[in-house]
Every structure is written in C-alpha cells, then in structure tokens.
Structures
1.
Amino acid sequence: MEEDMRERHAARIQGELLPGLDVVSVKSWEPVQVRRAPQGWKTLGCGNYAAVFAYPGDSRLAVKVYAPGRDGWEAERQVYRLLGEHPAYGRCFASGEHGGKRWLLLRRLHGKTLYDCLLQGVPIPEQAIRDVDAALDYAVSRGLRPHDVHGKNVMVQDGRGIVIDVSDFLKQESCEMWSDLKRAYRYAYKPLLGRKPFPVPGWAMDGLRSAYRRIRRRSKEQPCRDVLDETKAPPDGGAVSKP
Ligand SMILES: Nc1ncnc2c1ncn2[C@@H]1O[C@H](COP(=O)(O)OP(=O)(O)OP(=O)(O)O)[C@@H](O)[C@H]1O
C-alpha cells in the first residue's frame, strides 16, 4: 500500500473511528466488549484483547483496536513484519496509537472460522488443514513460534486455510493446540462429519472447549504477549503513525 494511502487511512481511523469508540476488557479471559462505535463502523468480531471493525467503503480492509489495558499490539505488529506477505496470513498495512488507543489496519478476511464451520455444518476441507500446516512451517522459517492456533483463529476462505491471529507467535513456550486440533480433525471430524457435515450444537462445542481446557490445564489469566527487540525485526511496510 502506498504511503499516502496509509496516511489517509490513518487519518480516518484516528479522526472518525477512535474518538467515538469505547472498547473495554471486563474480564481478561472473556472477549472485549464494544460499548459504543461510530455509525458505519461495523464490528466483525471480538477477541480477548481487541475488537475488529470493517473499514467503511473498502471491503478489503479491517481495523483492529486493542482495548485499553490489554497488551499485544506491539507483538502483533512485529509478527506481521516478520511474516511479510504470505497467502495463508493476513497483512498489516499500518498501525498507530492515538489518544491511548492502539490500532492496526489489516487485510480483511472474508472466510469462516473452523469453529463457525462446525456450528453451521459447513465442510472443512483437508486442503485448509494442509494450508495451515504449511503456513506454520513458514512462520518457523521466519524465526517465529506458532502459538494459540485453534478453531477460532483459523478461517476457511474459498476452500483454503488462513491463520487470522498471529499475536502470540513471539512466545517462547511450545503450544500443542494445532497438533491437537489436527488429531481431532483426523480421528473425530473425518469419520463422523467428513462425508455429511451437520451443525454441531453450541452447547456441545462449549462442552468440548472447556473439557479441552481442563485437560490442558490452561490457566484462565493469560500471560503477557512477548515483544521482540525492535532491532531484530526486518523493516517493512507497517507504518506507525504518531500519537
Ligand atoms: N483480518 C480480519 N478480517 C475479518 N475479521 C477479522 C480479522 N481479524 C479478526 N477478525 C475477527 O475478529 C475476531 C477477533 O480477532 P482476533 O482473534 O485477532 O482478536 P484477539 O483479541 O487478538 O483474539 P484472541 O482472544 O484469540 O487473542 C476474530 O475471531 C474474527 O472474527
């Protein structure tokens, strides 16, 4: 993206979206809440750190705004810089901090998360699983450590797999989530739903998720997202606008 376009988008985000936006994190282990957003800025989704909005007038773009007090913004910018351009990842075109609010301008993804595919009975093709495998190998080749790759962080778009949340890829500890998910795909999804997918009820999905969390003994409070030394990141397009 050209520099002047980045600046125009940054001006719009900081002049139009952020002043009328109220995103809060009430409990660190629950999705953030969008209490108020300016007209025309539709919420696409909320994670435990940030909310993501459609960019009005350009369906190729989305804006992710971190809730005050939630870290991860710096790490996410760095990971996108290290990843560069790859078909199985999003892209960060610009980022900034304004009035205490931290934002990223991202490539908008139009697929469905694996979680939503299960809820809605939409088939999950093997190709998508292979794409994510290849994408994670690529991340390792860029010096990153894939982390927190689960059913809500992977999308299927036009039959291909895309990793949508890379903010934990700087963490040093290993994470088994993707291996576990692949095992579940191979030994449960393929035999039971592979031929004729049907919607899995929400209560069953929630039950499976909490059973998995118990088994893995994941703590509810999430630790900080680590940040690499800036000097180790190669330069690229993620322009940062001044507060
Ligand atoms: N580039 C994108 N295009 C479209 N929708 C997106 C995009 N990025 C994120 N979303 C939507 O916003 C939701 C929250 O985004 P994301 O998972 O990145 O937030 P987070 O707070 O970092 O998440 P987590 O709790 O997993 O750490 C996603 O589940 C997805 O529905």
2.
Amino acid sequence: MITCIGAAPGVAIGRAFVLPTWEWDVPDQKMDVVDLTREFERLTEGIHTSRCEIEDMKKEVKEMVGPEESSIFDAHLAILEDPVFMSEIKGIIERQYKAAEVAVKEAIDHFVTMFDLLDDEYMKERATDIKDVGNRLLKHLLGAPEIKLPSDTQPYILVAKELSPSQLVHLNPQHVLGIVTLIGGKTSHSAIMSRAMGIPLVAGLEGKREEAFQTGELLVIDGDEGVLFIDPDEETQRVYADKQRKLQRKKEQLQLLAEVDAVTRDGEHLTLAANISSLRELETSLKHGAQGVGLFRTEFLYMDRSEFPSEDEQFDVYRRIAQRASGQPVVIRTLDIGGDKQLDYFALPEEDNPFLGYRAIRISLDRPDLFLTQLRAILRASAFGDVRVLYPMISSVDEVLQAKELLKRAMGQLGDRGEAYNADIPVGIMIEVPAAAAIADLLAEEVDFFSIGTNDLVQYVLAVDRMNEQIAHMYHPYHPAVLRMLRMTVNAARDRGIEVSVCGELAGDERAIPIWLELGVSKLSMSPQSLLRVKHRVLNTSAAEARDTGRQCFRLGRSGEIERLLSAYVTPVR
Ligand SMILES: C=C(OP(=O)(O)O)C(=O)O
C-alpha cells in the first residue's frame, strides 16, 4: 500500500493506462538563417491557435462540468497574455537568435524551475498551468500530434505524471475509473475538476515508487483515504470492491431522499434550496430535491462573451429558470463582478485590493444603465414564477435605498412599455460585509429578506482573503467572531419579522446544522451536490439535542474547539 494524497473522493479498481508525458524534445539550436520576423510570426500564430483551443475547452467544460470549473481556463488564457512570460520568450528569440520553439521551451523551464523552488503549494500548481499552456504552444510550433487517450478499450485508471485541466476535459468518465497523478495535490485544477466530474483521484506519488507505472497493471485507489495498491492481493480487492459497493449504495440511498422533506427527528422543518449559476445546475438541483433556488449567481451569464447580455437575453434565462422551478422561490442575485470575477469586455480598474474595491452593487449603482437592464429582465421574469431580487455586497442603508429607487424606475419603464411584472417582488440583500451585520437592524427595516453569504462574510470578518492558499488555514468559518455576526443578523431579522437564509458554503456543511437550529435559521441554500447529504443529516438529527450543541458552540472562544465539538456531533455522510 502506498500512502498518497486523496484529491477527489471515491474508490476505483482497474487496469492502469499510463499517459505519455506531454513534453516535447526540442533541440537547443539557433536559427539556421536569422529571420526574426518569421519567428515572431510563427509565435503569434501558435499563440492564436492555442488561444482558440483553450477557449473551445473552456466552453466544453462550462457545458459539461459547470461555469466555475470552466473559469480554470481563464488562468490559462492569462498565461498566453502574460507580458512577463511573453517578453521572456521574445527576448530569447531576439537576443539569442533561437527558434520560437526553443525560446518557448526555455521560458517554460525558467518559470517552472522558479515556481518549483518556492516552498508553496499554490505556486507549484501554477507551474503546472505554465507547463500545460507552454506545451500546447510548443505542440503547434513543432506541428506535433495531440496525445490521445484510449476511447475504445476497457475502462482504465489513468496514470500521469500530472494531468492538466485541458487533458481532463477530453476524458470520458465512462472510460476513466480513476486517476493517479505523480505530482499535484488537493488544490490543483485537475483535482477541482475531478471532484466535479465524480472521478476518484489520488496524487503526490512522486518518489513513492521506485519503478515506473506500467500500462495494464492492476490498481486500487481510494480518494478518501489517499491510498494506492499496485497488484493488490485478492483480499484487498475484495475489501475495496466492498467499499465501492457501499459508496454506490449510499449514493443510491441518498437519491431516494430527493422527494422527502428535510425534517428533524423531532419534527422541525428545514428548507433546502440550491445555489446555481445555470439552467443545467438547476436540473441537477431538482434531481436532488431542491426546494427552489436560494441563489442564482447571474455573473456567469455575463462571462464568456464579448459584450453585456441584452435585457431580452437575460430575461430569457431568468424566465426559463422561474418556469422550471414550478412555483418554488427563485432568488436572483444582481451582478456580482469585481474581486476575483472579471469580464473581458468590461475593463475594471487595476486595484490594490480588488475585494475591497469596485465590485458588485458598487458597480451596479455606478452604472445605472447596466443595472436597470438587469432589473427589467428580472422584473419581467417575475411574471412567470416566485422570483425575488437580491443585492450583493450591501454595506449601508443608502445603498439599499438607491437600489430600491432604481428598481422602482425599472418598474416605471416596464409600465410604460406595457410589460407584466410583479410589483411586490420581494427584495433582499446579501449579508456578507461586517458593516451589514452590524447594522442588520437598520437594514431589516428596508428589505423583505436577508441571505447570509458566509464565504465573503468569513473573509471580511477575519481579514483572510478567501482566494489566498497561503493563508487558507486561517479561513475559519467557525470563528467565534463569525458566529457572533451570524447571531446579530438573525436576531435583527427575527425582531423585524423578515426571512433570513444562508447561502454560503457553510450552509452545505452538515456540521453547521446545530448552529442553524440554535440561531433559528430554517432555510439553507447550497451547491446541488450537497443537498442530499445535508438532508440525510437533518433527518437523523434531534433538533433539541443539536440546539444544545449549538448553544455550547456560542460559549466557546476558539474556532478549533467549536469545529471539534461540531465534528464530534455528526459523522459526515458522503
Ligand atoms: C454565496 C456567496 O457569494 P459568492 O458567490 O461570492 O460565493 C458568499 O459570499 O457566501
């Protein structure tokens, strides 16, 4: 047995297919005849073809896996445009008279060595991205063929030194039982995609096996435990086949809960809704028994295009979602760009602190033309279902009043056009900025509901960037400061009699159920993949007991203690 990193859960048993390394042999030679113009032209053409391929893969992943995973390819496109990477390549051509492919190879080696030397998992993963993009560029410059995966064989476990997201896109989950990579870890882009595609993955095998992996050898991998067996004996095969069957059965049992209400053992009802970014995700959510859409992240409608979506385009999507939700609530959040979410055609200013900068409602209020277009589209959809509007990143009463004023103006415009809409559309705000939690009592006077966005709330309360892997260990959703903010918000909503729900990642963490019960939050909105797991936990929970645990959490002073107490209370189900 080899212990490694379990990067995507699940068990796989099958024969190995070893993927040849995607690295080209490039002889280090100077140009025969110095023709800089020709080399630059070849380089430009290679970049263009690579960009087109990456854009196609991005579209494919968006369709197949989801918009968030597809944004992985933005990092790849950014590398092709990176001025430092490109000037390194051009400098080698210009000053050393080397052919474009030699220059690209040297630039890849230079940056990969530099990033690998840093003792930082995140930077090492970025080295993988550079290799992936650089090798794609090299492939075009050398006219080399694409490495193809077998598609007509028995299903196999794919073994690769490392696997790039662009290689993963072309995997057929019907053929690939599992993945083994020598390098990489839990945070790699491949791991994120494997998890979303439901393919078990173990990583970090480099140096743990002396001889090379061979195509055809029998492997067992367990992506939960992070273990790999090579040519396992019969007993091991039996044990893991058994585990695999149990996991499959668990999945099937959970699926049976889709139509069951989320009620605790002692009769308390919770509403479990879904966070979605597309119609495709709504379908998955409905299959998993979602009670409506608690958060529709509309920014994904604005991505992968060259201009802002028109009112009609937006209306078409919102209407279809409202209709498909068949009368269940659909909460549509207005545009939340800025921070880590950028639009190619909307040049946001370079900022020192983009998460504290020009983003979300701040942009909407600054650009009423864009905001009114979106509000009209949402309002028109409200004639087709229980549509509600949600404003992101609210930090003051003034912002709410301005947004409400613009909503009224949008209603007036639709009225002039004779369009139907719900004049009483419920209006809510995200509580994700500490200021909003602190003045929740004032904000509650102005709106119909609160939706607590714990992802951003945790980042802002703790001053811990949610995207920065180096400080990821400090990102504590169970920090007492976060719990206090939650309490303030929920109390304010209760005193004013408005609805409060939670839509951050914490809503999908079954360990948090005692916190919600203690606070009196009865509506949770989460990723479609979490719905059945959380429901299963709710069904096995005694609200009275859980509330007791929740109460104890509020008395503890350290995140670790709180997390331990909650973890001991539940045994997570997958
Ligand atoms: C749901 C949230 O918003 P985002 O889309 O930024 O994750 C949140 O911040 O909790």
